[in-house]
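Below is a filled-in request sheet from our internal design queue. Each sheet records the structural input a requester submitted and the sequence that came back. We keep these sheets so that new team members can see what a complete request looks like end to end.

REQUESTER: design group, bay 2
PRIORITY: normal
MODE: inverse folding
CHAIN LENGTH: 213
BACKBONE (tokenized):
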């Protein structure tokens, strides 16, 4: 599980603050950008199953909840005790079984594109390319405009209709985390409690006082 947590920390370490003025690039790099912006900005709530492939070859899955702006939750399936929650201000990640706990401002996390209000694939972000994948999805490859060498973030959507299918994060050492979404639903009511920290006291987790299944 520590390897899984390290992989997720790699995701969190990439800072994609989706704000700015004008998208970079011309021609093919612009294909589908406005459609993806409009689509994600149209989402208010969403729920989906996800499968996460980690750099060490492990595969985990769970349920993703989104409430825009600013709130999301990754609930990993048992036996994992890993959970990740964004409450609108910060992201908290905890795993009592492995005595791990961390918090980051939401703007520092790569997944912030899901809940940024409004999403703008521009300014601090450069859309490096927009391509079709072999399975017919549109893949937008994003980099930090000022630090393109720090890594890449790839958003995958279906077209006609547009629907988020997942994303990939590649860090500056080539480590890659793939997330694939299935059974995506939008527009439902979600309890506000989903987006609040509901784990043990951080001191108990770090001191080994959490549940250890």
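RETURNED SEQUENCE:
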């Amino acid at each position: 599980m520590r390897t899984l947590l390290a992989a997720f920390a790699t995701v969190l370490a990439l800072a994609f603050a989706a704000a700015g003025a004008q998208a970079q690039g011309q021609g093919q790099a612009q294909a589908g950008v406005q459609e993806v912006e409009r689509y994600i900005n149209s989402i208010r709530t969403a729920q989906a199953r996800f499968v996460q492939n980690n750099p060490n070859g492990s595969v985990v899955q769970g349920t993703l909840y989104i409430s825009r702006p600013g709130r999301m939750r990754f609930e990993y399936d048992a036996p994992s005790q890993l959970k990740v929650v964004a409450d609108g201000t910060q992201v908290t990640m905890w795993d009592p079984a492995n005595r791990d706990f961390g918090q980051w401002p939401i703007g520092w996390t790569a997944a912030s594109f899901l809940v940024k209000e409004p999403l703008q694939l521009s300014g601090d972000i450069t859309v490096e390319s927009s391509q079709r994948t072999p399975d017919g999805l549109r893949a937008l490859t994003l980099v930090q405009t000022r630090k393109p060498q720090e890594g890449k973030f790839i958003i995958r959507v279906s077209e006609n209709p547009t629907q988020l299918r997942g994303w990939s994060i590649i860090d500056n050492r080539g480590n890659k985390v793939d997330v694939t979404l299935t059974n995506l639903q939008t527009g439902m009511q979600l309890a506000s409690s989903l987006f609040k920290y509901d784990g043990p006291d951080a001191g108990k987790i770090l001191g080994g006082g959490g549940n250890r299944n």
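SHEET NOTES:
- Residues 85 and 129 are 30 Å apart (CA to CA).
- Confidence is low (pLDDT under 50) at residues 1-28.
FILED BY: M.R.
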